[in-house]
Amino acid sequence: MNKDVATLLSRHSEALALFSERVHAVRTDQWDDPTPCTDWSVRDLVNHLTAEQLWVPDLVTEGSTIAEVGDAYDGDVLGPRPRATWDAAVRAARKAFAAPGALEGTVWLSYGETPTVSYCAQMITDAVVHGWDLSRAIGAPERLPDALVGFALDEVTPYAAELSASGLFAPPIEPPPGDSHQARLLALLGRRD
Fold it and tell me: What mean pLDDT do residues 19-33 have?
């Protein structure tokens, strides 16, 4: 395994571990609480990330297209045991990305054929940013690991403007004085640290 692939898989595991820690910290009375993601409750946010993990084996291992998977992961995928469902989805996603040769291929995303390494990098960034969202929503520590923040900032900076144009992300805002990597990352995605 080359160094870049090993680093990518390490960051992927770290990002999922961060989000997992937050999922397991959600109190029973917090699932309906609001998050920094407009219109999403804590449950909606965890559901979104869980559905994303569920897609990974289909796209990476099976080579399925978005059309072939269809609406399999639409709606509530968490069921009555959200933590257990999240944990199972994470195990499957990690296994798919870590399989020999998996990161050498391509996957079919909504915008076309994409190198699997790029897909994995996007998934890392999403877990990091939403890890902060979940932290804020449940009152957990909001300081994210420097290595993950740096990775996500490098990943999202080139296409941050496109994200807000998609309507899925808030427009970038001016980062606060001091310009920490975390503050810059969050500001690029319309969030205040």
Answer: 98
